[in-house]
């Protein structure tokens, strides 16, 4: 009697804990298969360790994968709802004979839950590259963009449009066996678009999923880190179009640096050209400049500046990609000579600068 009550109590506590997986995906216990699939996509994008650097993101991502594994499988979901996660683990242990190969949610997403292609290189849909134009100011300070992307995803009832066919050896690959003589069998490989996975063939004119895929809008947050460089890609893994039998490719936002009116960039360094009058080149001057984040700084030059002389200003370039300091600013000075001088100006210049060794006759300005 006591053992029965204890067993019942454990079952009740485990059943109550079944809500955890639903909460992880942010769905109700009555959620449909499509709602579960959509919630998983959004949650996995948000908590993917490559995109989310918060502490505990990797553990959260793993929990989300486990939640989707269970709730997307009708049998596992029923066991989880009735007996909780511990009861489900006991069931899985019995099914696997104490073993088990683990779960890959992406493989179930795009390869129908099969593991037969693990030994071969997995085929993927093409990656998508989208240009992302950024100003030098945005690349200096970092930026965040909220975008909506439209892609093709497998329709809700795509599983109902497939039939078993052992001749299918992968997406688009069909291998037929032909007996050419007693005891001799020839294998002929053909291209067949109806083959969507190993052992799976698509049914033509299937009313449940006539076009194989459907359009889906997804919201993405593009985080531009400080110091990002031209042609660098911000990648969202497996967010390109889905296709039966294929793993989704990546969506890449490729940085395109806009031309800047004052600066140009090379690596972590910035370059700027300035024109100064001859008097400043000879007597020195102070200069106030503005960084790309709007912060002003001053430099003072006391030495004589030659034409096309380059001044290095340490630490006033772009933020380094690794987060350790800044590059340098290089300023090239172009000296603006006057178009003409009066006789009096020439005389005073000679008095200040002194005459050349050749005398005054041949060296007059």
How would you concisely characterize the structure shown here?
Helices cover 29% and strands 31% of the residues. The protein has nine helices and 15 strands.
Can you walk me through this structure?
The protein has 365 residues and is of the alpha+beta class. The chain is 29% helix and 31% strand. Helix 2 (19-25) packs across helix 4. The protein is elongated. Residues 1-19, 98-120 and 358-365 have low confidence and may be disordered.
Question: Which properties best describe this structure?
Answer:
single chain; 365 residues; alpha+beta; 4-stranded antiparallel beta sheet; 4-stranded mixed beta sheet; disordered N terminus
Reconstruct the topology from this structure.
Layout: H1 2-16, H2 19-25, H3 33-47, H4 57-71, H5 74-96, H6 105-111, E1 128-134, H7 136-141, E2 143-154, E3 162-170, E4 173-181, E5 184-191, E6 195-202, E7 213-224, E8 233-236, E9 251-257, E10 264-266, E11 269-277, H8 278-283, E12 285-290, E13 296-301, E14 309-313, E15 329-336, H9 343-353
Parallel strand pairs: 1-9, 11-15
Antiparallel strand pairs: 2-7, 3-4, 3-6, 4-5, 8-9, 10-11, 12-13, 14-15
Helix pairs in contact: 1-5, 2-4, 3-4
């Amino acid at each position: 009697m006591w053992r029965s009550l204890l067993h019942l109590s454990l079952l009740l506590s485990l059943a109550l804990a079944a809500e955890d997986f639903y909460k992880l995906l942010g769905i109700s216990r009555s959620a449909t298969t499509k709602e579960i699939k959509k919630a998983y996509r959004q949650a996995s994008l948000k908590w993917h360790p490559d995109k989310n650097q918060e502490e505990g993101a990797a553990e959260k991502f793993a929990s989300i994968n486990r939640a989707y594994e269970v709730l997307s499988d009708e049998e596992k979901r029923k066991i989880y709802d009735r007996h909780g996660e511990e009861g489900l683990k006991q069931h899985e242990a019995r099914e696997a004979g104490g073993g088990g190969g683990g779960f890959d949610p992406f493989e179930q997403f795009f390869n129908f839950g099969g593991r037969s292609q693990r030994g071969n290189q997995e085929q993927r849909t093409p990656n998508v590259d989208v240009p992302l134009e950024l100003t030098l100011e945005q690349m200096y300070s970092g930026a965040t963009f909220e975008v909506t992307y439209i892609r093709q995803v497998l329709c809700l009832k795509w599983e109902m449009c497939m039939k078993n066919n052992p001749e299918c050896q992968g997406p688009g690959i069909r291998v037929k066996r032909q007996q050419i003589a007693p005891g001799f069998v020839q294998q002929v490989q053909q291209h067949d678009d109806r083959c969507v996975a190993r052992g799976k063939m698509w049914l033509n004119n299937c009313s449940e999923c006539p076009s194989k895929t459907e359009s889906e809008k997804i919201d993405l947050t593009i985080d531009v880190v400080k110091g990002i460089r031209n042609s660098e890609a911000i990648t969202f893994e497996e967010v390109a179009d889905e296709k039966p039998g294929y793993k989704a490719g990546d969506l890449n936002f490729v940085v395109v640096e806009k031309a800047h009116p004052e600066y140009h960039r090379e690596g972590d360094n910035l370059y700027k050209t300035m024109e100064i009058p001859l008097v400043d080149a000879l007597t020195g001057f102070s200069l106030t400049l503005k960084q790309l984040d709007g912060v002003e700084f001053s430099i003072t030059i006391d030495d004589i500046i030659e034409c096309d002389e380059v001044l290095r200003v340490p630490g006033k370039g772009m933020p380094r990609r690794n987060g350790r300091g800044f590059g340098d600013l290089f300023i090239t000075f172009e000296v603006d000579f006057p178009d003409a001088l009066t006789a009096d100006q020439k005389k005073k210049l000679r008095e200040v600068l002194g005459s050349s060794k050749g005398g005054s006759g041949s060296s007059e300005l």
